[in-house]
Design a protein that fits this description.
The complex is a heterodimer of chains A (about 625) and B (about 850). Chain A is α/β, with parallel strands linked by helices. Among the domains of chain A are: about 140 residues, Sec1/Munc18 (SM) protein, domain 1 (Rossmann fold, 3-Layer(aba) Sandwich), CATH 3.40.50.2060; about 200 residues, Rossmann fold, CATH 3.40.50; about 100 residues, Sec1/Munc18 (SM) protein, domain 3a (Syntaxin Binding Protein 1, Chain A, domain 2, Alpha-Beta Complex). Chain A contains 28 helices and 14 strands. Chain A is globular, with a radius of gyration of 26 Å. The N and C termini of chain A lie far apart (about 55 Å). About 5% of the residues of chain A have low confidence. Chain B has about 850 residues and is α+β, with helices and mostly antiparallel strands. Chain B is built from 33 helices and 29 strands.
């Protein structure tokens, strides 16, 4: 299979750059940039300082709630359309006015302006002083097979607050992808958000006037998945190398910063984590136990290559220096960093710091929860975490996992754990618990007696009455959902055999199953769904599984020829699958999907609203006190 | 066919476009006001009230297409009509004697009106001329004071009054006409034999025709050419002076030997003004005079010649000829286009003629065909010949001749492979197909190919739309493969806009009909159609139509405009575009009372949620109101909890928490109540502690508070809190041992361990000791720890020997292995024993 047939997602980067070039070019002359902190890394990823300087950018500031001193006469804000940012900008303009400083302001809103923001600017009395433009930065290519909106807000704003502003953005990016890579013929989806997105894609396409893409489509299938279909996976500790890096050091937009503990020097080393790094691409998806072995064998090889030069003739040496040495040096650098990082990970794993607990213990608890065994023991471990005031996000993660795998906690357990949690971490987490309840992450199971049947009925009727896109969000309360899906995780994992049977050892070095990403204990539900969807070319036969999952499922399959044979279009495209995670994806799932792709001969491209892990996912629900 | 040579080079012809006319009764044009439009020959006619006796019956205006088929008729009901004329946009300009100008479309829909000014109103208008200028259509009138008023462009009716004619006595000027100039139109007027050029800046200059031989008493008619460069003056001696508009060049002076005032004097030119001629019309006779003094006379068939001898034909100049309309037929007078004359001139040896002959002979299967073809090939003229035949066909009106010529062209074309010729041929066929279709008497647009070229195809389609020939327009667009947006979709939209104006048809039917037709069309804006419906006062229809528009933003905009804010909100919600929802919410909020607003928004869960979110960020008071409205006490309680953390003042904090407590009570949430009460209690305790201990406690969790107390050795107070909040023993033990270890108070730690049986086991003691590097302390507790946990603990504190012993007891391979790894050179014997044990363990 030739590489040229595959959709090249780096095109998206060029599109974004072009846009920025035009927008900055229109604002002639020297200007300062003020950037939303959340957009710093993505923008850096897309452009880089050199590029911006070339477009006349003088200084770059971070948008914060404080004045910016100095700077030139023109200023460009690049922000997400958020109320807070608008207020900050308005404050800047007011302070300039007070100081008698005349400036021109432009606001580029990513990915589009919102009416609310304009309203705020108007209320603040600065609407007339600014010019607002849209900067359609959609999916940012993180790697050759990962594209991300880098917009973690979607998770809480949709799944908790029912605000689907960002779903519109998701839909728009799909429309854009289709105009670049051709209309995707097969669509499968599961979840409230996925359904809305699918409808929006159709609406947007018809609003655009059904511009038939002249291209042969390059992507054969798209699978849309809501995060709340599978909260369990991101709640588990990651054990692949890349996943561990993310859990321990936090990967931002495909780049990572290693502190002194890794580099062994004072300096902080920033490095890109993608398939261009030969060493990293070999280890990123491995289970951690296999990483060290590979690194050491690799180190030996490199050493051998270095050593070659001792017995070289002059001419050979010249060639070596000019051709191989640079590559070797790069590999050497990357090797050093990854060995350093692995050591840090080892420390975390075996010792467990004061606030984190022992990773082995935690993994043990997680596995028990996934299997549904030793419930009491798990609860008491979580209690210990609370009593010892372990890292709050860790505790919360285990709590949520407990709730998600058991379809909500019994009132008694819920209350006692919540009480203990509040005693340890503070009363403000009343709100955190409330948020998590709304999102369905940490819920209180309602026993049949407490919910009057009539109220369920009325809720169901309401659900049935409401039509169209909008209503899909009108969730039934999470308690009702829990009631309907009592023990759904158990059922689903049995039906999809997510948990391997006891006694079946998973080979972690040469895996033969996706479950290796969790040490053979669990196959991520989302990944299994993707596997089933593309294998079955739809959801057919899975009805009794999907029934247990939140949201609705849908499929739209390209008409096949009458003979029932394969579709006539390029067979290369039919092997390309785009999986869109609405609400975020973890590195473990990415690793599993990569494995799936290799195993079944598919090219899987992962699109997501953000790359998350357990902590980042929960952080968006945690109430912070000023 | 009526061909007449006009001098050496040019030939003029007069031929029938339509004969007989479609009108059923004969029309007496001699007593009518009549206008024929350019580019298509629409005919409007109305009885001239000023000529006939006023009977009290108001006249009917009839509008016909070029073939005389009636398009519409209406009774004139306004003031005294003195003139009608078609504008460049095919609107009918109706001029009243009081200077009021009214514009109608051909279906008598009123378009606009303006007036020619006070002076015209007071001194009735006597004469007028409508002219086309670069700006559009212009109007010049002469009022009772013999003063001229001009509007250069009726779209922006700005009246300019021209200079007076000098020396004018009580008689009107003997003749006048409009002259086009670069800076607006001027008027050329004759007072007997003196000619003056009048302009709007009050200038007036006398003009003298150069080299005038005749000595007339008066000029009784004059006309300027359409491009404003030439002028013809008709003197009462029967002489026509033809020259340049600035009177400097005289082209010729021609004596018609007819002293009567011509009924019409006008210019006939061809496209590009290469051939020009003056056309003079007296009843029954048309005289064509060229600047070279060549002339031709044509007869006009006027069967019902009026008693007083006034002619009953109407002439109107078009860009490439003159329309002649009589009661019997619609004729066209033009210079024969070069291509046609080249082929059909008697004895012509032009390549086109030869090719035409060759094709004829070929059809007869005569060898002469080859002969002609050879001549053309030898002279390398075949390409030219094909071009001529093709172009001639284009300029020809009769399909029979078009066919002959095209056949000839096609015949010749097969001998000259040339892509350009093919293109020309194909384009010509297409053009002709369209032209023949619109010329059909039902449509009756008498358009020549040259006119079409000037007009452009797009405008032709526009005209078809104006004439409500939607069906034809649609097919023309499809035939020419015009992109849907400019073509078929646009036409369907126009059709729909027309359809919604049909007042007698029921809303549902119209909506269904529109939907049915437009279903398959792309890029149709239903919003525009709906807007049209709104204009016609059909709001319900508009709302029905909006349903079809895929663009939610348009729907929402228009629905808001219609005041249907709730429906707009519904549509916005369905669109999934939250931005749209926000603006719909904002408009709804502005336009309705708060209670109505709340009712409306509650019915839209999505919008409701968005509004909640907005309020959370913007207007917390409103947020609480909303929750209150919904009896959503749990939400309210959490809002208050949130508030309690927003303030630093403890009294406010307490108030907020009490509100939260109230709401939990209302919600019957016992657990929430309990939690809140506890928090209040904690705050009380904390503030008391702060007073007593001079340390900050507020903001801390219960756990942290106790922890701080233990650190500063306030064991009593810590115990008090423990009891107050019923802390579990486990937590208490954890708190104690960590605090003690942190303080390095290992003696107390040991005492504490012995105080009673530890609820958390003894491994935590080991752990905290290790953490604080008190390895010696570890041994005190390790005996009480489970075997399997001892190994790592011993290893940790460097006691290999004990570790090995413990490992031997557990017999766990991993433990043994861990020990082995730690064994250095000095522990050889231990290592050996461990290895032995491992062997043993593996065997079993």
């Amino acid at each position: 299979m030739a590489g040229g047939d595959y959709p090249d997602v780096s095109m998206l980067k060029e599109l974004a750059r072009e846009q920025l070039t035009i927008l900055l070019g229109n604002f002639y002359g020297k200007k300062d940039l003020v950037i939303d902190p959340g957009l710093m890394t993505p923008l850096d990823r897309l452009t880089g300082v050199q590029f911006l300087k070339h477009k006349g950018v003088d200084k770059i500031f971070k948008l914060e709630h404080k004045e910016i001193l100095g700077g030139c006469d023109q200023r460009v804000y690049i922000v997400r359309p958020q109320v807070k940012s608008m207020r900050n900008i308005a404050a800047h303009i007011h302070s300039d006015k007070r100081a008698g400083k005349l400036r021109k302001y432009r606001i580029l809103m990513v990915p589009r302006r919102l009416h609310v923001c304009e309203m705020i600017l108007e209320q603040e009395g600065v609407y007339g002083s600014v010019q607002i433009e849209d900067l359609h930065i959609g999916l940012i290519p993180i790697d050759s097979d990962i594209i991300s909106l880098e917009n973690p807000q979607l998770l809480d704003s949709f799944f908790m607050e029912g605000d689907y502003t960002w779903l519109h953005t998701v839909a728009r990016t799909i429309v854009n992808l289709q105009s670049t890579f051709g209309t995707i013929p097969n669509v499968y989806g599961q979840g409230h958000a996925a359904k809305i997105v699918e409808t929006l894609v159709q609406t947007l396409t018809s609003e655009l006037g059904e511009k038939k893409s002249p291209l042969q489509h390059k992507i054969g299938h798209i699978v849309l998945l809501d995060r709340d279909v599978d909260y369990v996976t991101p709640l588990c500790s990651q054990v692949t190398y890349e996943g561990l890096l993310d859990d321990i050091f936090e990967i931002k937009c495909g780049a990572i910063e290693f502190g002194p503990e890794v580099t062994g020097t004072e300096k902080v080393a920033k490095t890109m984590l993608n398939s261009e790094d030969a060493i990293f691409s070999q280890i990123r998806n491995r289970h951690f136990t296999g990483v060290f072995k590979y690194l050491s064998s690799r180190a030996k090889e490199i050493q051998a290559n270095y050593d070659k030069r001792h017995n070289m003739e002059l001419q050979e040496l010249k060639n070596f220096v000019s051709e191989e040495l640079k590559g070797l040096k790069q590999e050497h650098r990357s090797l050093t960093l990854h060995i350093g990082a692995s050591e840090v990970i080892m420390k975390h794993k075996t010792k467990g710091s004061l606030k984190r607990g022992d990773l082995q213990d935690i993994l043990g608890v997680e596995h028990n929860l996934l299997e549904g065994s030793d419930f009491r023991q798990c609860v008491s471990y979580i209690e210990e975490c609370i009593h010892r005031q372990y890292d709050m996000l860790l505790t919360l993660r285990l709590l949520c996992l407990l709730s998600c795998t058991t379809s909500g906690l019994l009132a008694k357990d819920y209350q006692s754990l919540k009480l203990k949690f509040l005693h340890s971490y503070g009363f403000e987490h009343m709100i955190t618990f409330f948020n998590l309840k709304k999102a369905g992450l940490l819920t209180e199971a309602v026993t049949g007696k407490e919910v009057a049947p009539s109220s369920i009925e009325s809720n169901l009727n309401k659900l049935a009455d409401s039509r169209g896109v909008g209503s899909a969000v009108s969730y039934v309360t999470s308690s009702l959902a829990a009631l309907q899906k009592k023990d759904w995780f158990r059922t689903v994992s049995k039906k999809l055999s997510l948990i391997p049977k006891a006694g079946v050892e998973c080979n972690l070095q040469n895996p033969n199953d996706m479950s290796y990403v969790f040490g053979g204990a669990y196959t991520p539900l989302t990944c299994r769904l993707v596997e089933q969807a593309i294998q079955r070319q739809g959801w057919g036969g899975l009805e009794d599984v999907l029934r247990h999952l939140p949201g609705t499922n849908f499929e739209k399959i390209e008409a096949r020829s009458a003979k029932g044979g394969k579709s006539t279009v390029g067979s290369a495209a039919s092997k390309v699958v785009l999986v869109y995670f609405i609400g975020g994806v973890t590195y473990s799932e990415i690793a599993a999907l990569r494995f799936l792709g290799r195993q079944k001969g598919y090219r899987i491209i992962i699109a997501t609203t953000a790359i998350i892990n357990g902590s980042r996912m929960l952080r968006s629900f945690v109430e912070t006190v000023k | 066919m009526d061909w007449n040579p006009l001098g050496q080079k040019t030939i003029s012809r007069k031929f029938s476009l339509y004969s007989p006319m479609c009108w059923s009764t004969k029309i007496d044009f001699s007593s009518n006001l009549t206008s024929i439009s350019k580019y298509g020959g629409l005919i409007a006619t109305v009885k001239d009230e000023s000529q006939s006796n006023r009977t009290g019956n108001r006249p009917d205006i009839f509008i016909f297409n070029a073939a005389g088929k009636i398009i519409s008729s209406f009774r004139w009901s306004s003031g005294i009509l003195i003139g009608i004329a078609w504008t460049h946009a095919d609107e009918l300009l109706c001029l009243q004697d009081d200077g009021q100008v009214l514009l109608y479309n051909m279906f008598w829909d009123f378009q606009k009106s303006f007036t020619m000014g006070m002076e015209c109103r007071e001194n009735k208008i006597m004469e007028y001329e409508v002219f086309s200028s670069v700006h559009g259509t212009g109007l010049a009138v002469m009022n009772g004071l013999y003063r001229f008023c001009i509007v250069n462009n009726i779209e922006e009716p700005k009246v300019r009054i021209l200079a007076d004619i000098p020396g004018l006595r009580a008689t009107p000027p003997s003749s006048w006409c409009v002259v086009q100039g670069p800076r607006g139109a001027k008027v050329l007027a004759a007072n007997e034999c003196n000619i003056f050029l009048l302009d709007h800046s009050g200038q007036c200059s006398q003009q003298k025709p150069t080299d005038l031989n005749a000595a007339p008493n008066a000029y009784i008619a004059m006309a300027t050419s359409m491009d404003g460069k030439h002028v013809a003056l008709y003197a009462d001696t029967g002489t026509i002076w033809i020259g340049s508009a600035d009177f400097q060049d005289k082209y010729c002076e021609f004596n018609t030997s007819n002293r009567s005032r011509p009924k019409q004097l006008l210019w006939c030119s061809d496209r590009g003004y290469r051939n020009i001629a003056v056309v003079v019309y007296w009843p029954k006779t048309i005289l064509v005079v060229s600047p070279q003094k060549d002339w031709v006379r044509f007869n006009v068939d006027e069967d019902n010649l009026d008693r007083n001898g006034t002619g009953s034909a109407v002439l109107a100049a078009d860009v490439d000829g003159v329309h002649i309309v009589t009661s019997e037929r619609h004729e066209f007078l033009q210079h024969v286009p070069n291509a046609i004359s080249g082929i059909f001139k008697v004895g012509s040896m032009a390549p086109g003629a030869l090719l035409n002959d060759a094709a004829k002979e070929y059809d007869k299967q005569s060898e002469k065909a080859d002969e002609y073809l050879r001549i053309l090939l030898e002279n390398r003229q075949l390409k030219e010949a094909v071009e001529q035949c093709t172009l001639a066909a284009l300029d020809e009106f009769q399909p029979r001749i078009q066919k002959t010529l095209l056949r000839a062209a096609s015949f010749g074309k097969s001998f000259v492979p040339d892509i350009k010729l093919t293109e020309l041929f194909v384009n010509t066929c297409q053009m002709l197909r369209v032209l023949n279709a619109v010329r059909d008497f039902n449509t009756g647009i008498a358009l020549t190919a040259a006119q079409l070229e000037n007009l452009s195809m797009d405008y032709l389609i526009d005209r078809l739309i104006l004439r409500r020939q939607f069906h034809l327009a649609f097919h023309v667009c499809q035939y020419l493969k015009i992109p849907e947006k400019q073509g078929s979709s646009r036409i369907l939209s126009h059709w729909a806009c027309y359809k919604v104006q049909q007042k007698d048809v029921d809303d549902g039917k119209i909506a269904a009909a529109v939907r049915d037709k437009l279903k398959s069309a792309r890029g149709v804006s239903y919003a525009n159609i709906a807007e049209k419906a709104v204009e016609c006062g059909r709001r319900d229809l508009a709302i029905k139509l909006l349903e079809f528009d895929p663009r939610a933003s348009e729907q929402v905009r228009l629905l808001s405009l219609l005041g249907k804010h709730t429906l707009a909100l519904e549509k916005a919600v369905a669109s999934g575009n939250t931005d749209l929802i926000y603006s719909a919410i904002a408009r709804l909020r502005e336009r309705t009372s708060l209670s109505d607003f709340l009712v409306a928004i509650r019915q839209q869960p999505v919008a409701y949620k968005l509004h909640l979110k907005y309020c959370k960020e913007q207007n917390e008071r409103m947020l609480k109101d909303l929750h209150e409205q919904e009896d959503n006490f749990i939400e309210l309680a959490h809002c208050h909890i949130h508030d309690s953390f927003d303030t630093f003042r403890s009294d406010e904090r307490v108030i907020s928490l009490h509100s939260a407590l109230d709401n939990f009570t209302k919600a019957k949430d016992d657990f929430g109540m309990k939690m809140t009460e506890e928090q209040l209690q904690l705050l009380r305790e904390q503030s008391q502690l702060e007073q007593e201990l001079d340390e900050s406690f507020i903001e801390k969790s219960l756990h942290d508070t106790i922890c701080s107390l233990l650190k500063i050795n306030q064991l009593k107070r810590a115990e008090h809190l423990r009891k107050q909040f019923k802390l579990s023993d486990k937590r208490w033990w954890w708190l104690r041992i960590t605090a003690l270890a942190e303080q390095g108070n290992f003696a107390e730690l040991e005492n504490f361990s012995k105080s009673k049986k530890s609820p958390i086991g003894y491994y935590p003691f080991v752990e905290v000791c290790i953490q604080h590097n008190a390895y010696t302390e570890v041994t005190k507790y390790i005996g009480k720890v489970q075997l399997d946990k001892r190994v790592p603990a011993f290893l940790k504190i460097g006691s290999i020997k004990h570790a090995a012993e413990a490992a031997m007891q557990t017999k766990s391979l991993s433990d043994l292995d861990a020990v082995l790894k730690k064994c250095g050179a000095e522990h050889r014997d231990i290592a050996d024993r461990v290895r032995a044990m491992m062997m043993q363990a593996q065997e079993t």
